Amino acid sequence: MARSAIEWTEATWNPVTGCNKVSPGCKHCYAEVMARRLEAMGQPNYRNGFELTLHPHMLGRPLAWRRPQMIFVNSMSDLFHESVPVEFIQEVFGVMARAHWQTFQVLTKRAERLEEIGPRLPWPDNVWMGVSVEREDYASRIDHLRRTPAQVRFLSLEPLLGPMPGLDLRRVDWVIVGGESGPHARPMDEAWVLDILRQCRAAGVPFFFKQWGGRHKKTAGRRLRGRIWEEMPVRKGDRRAPATP
């Protein structure tokens, strides 16, 4: 298990690593930079750098983690990448269904493939499915998400690269907003964030503000109009691990 510094999760699980860029939000991909660093350090799972790689030996890991927690799936890749076989995606979902005491957060930019494969996957209520949407011209990803059988659906509007007026939040259970960080971070306008907050309030959707970002994200902080916003969907069901024999 890898503890995570990502504000909206607790741990990460990467049965797949590596990816390629598909839209403007990918331009300064943190996962690519981290993968190159781990490759240079000799970490076995990153022997191929940021080339897409399946890790079957990682599949059973969440079943051994007894403490219930939020787990971000494939923080270093995209589970719905076109090079990930459907059978492997089904195995990942099978593990998530079996590890019912955990809450899994899956995030993709490949929303069309998500919709295509969705009916062939189990969708227990401990699997939260999200799409990344960085600009209004990629909002169609939300429509694909809405048409999946997922019981909890969320949006990651990060890095937010423009205004998102007229968001259709029907059957959306959570919205995360964040600015880009790092030396080449593109700026985020406060007005964009406040408008998204307004839309979430009108639709009754929980709102999570992750960060302002920028070159020095810790200095920029996470406060929006004087407060920290960390609203989340309600976690359903029994989250206790079964007793060890």
Q: Can you lay out the helices and strands and say which pair or pack?
A:
Layout (H helix, E strand, L loop, with lengths): L1 E2 L7 E3 L2 E2 L12 H11 L12 E2 L6 H4 L5 E4 L12 H13 L4 E6 L2 H7 L9 E6 L7 H7 L5 E6 L16 E5 L11 H14 L3 E5 L5 H4 L25
Parallel strand pairs: 2-5, 5-6, 6-7, 7-8, 8-9, 9-10
Antiparallel strand pairs: 1-2, 3-4
Helix pairs in contact: 4-5
What does this structure look like?
The longest helix is centred in the last third of the chain and has 14 residues, at 190-203. Strand 9 (174-178), helix 6 and strand 10 (207-211) form a beta-alpha-beta unit. The mean pLDDT is 95. The strands form two sheets. The protein has an eight-stranded mixed sheet with strand order 1-2-5-6-7-8-9-10. By secondary structure, it is an alpha/beta fold. The protein contains seven helices and ten strands.
Summarize the structure.
This protein is of the alpha/beta class and 245 residues long. The protein has 7 helices and 10 strands. The chain has helices at residues 30-40, 61-64, 86-98, 111-117, 140-146, 190-203, 217-220, and strands at residues 2-3, 11-13, 16-17, 53-54, 70-73, 103-108, 127-132, 152-157, 174-178, 207-211.
Secondary-structure element string = EEEHEHEHEHEHEEHEH
Give unreliable regions as ranges: none
Number of domains: 1
Helix content: 10-25%
Radius of gyration: 17 Å
Strand content: 15-25%
Distance separating the two termini: 22 Å
SS-based structural class?
alpha/beta
Give the overall shape, derived from the CA principal axes. Answer: globular
Query: How do the strands of the widest beta sheet line up side by side?
Result: 1-2-5-6-7-8-9-10
Helical segment tally?
7
Residue-averaged pLDDT: 95
Largest sheet: 8 strands, mixed
Strand runs, count: 10
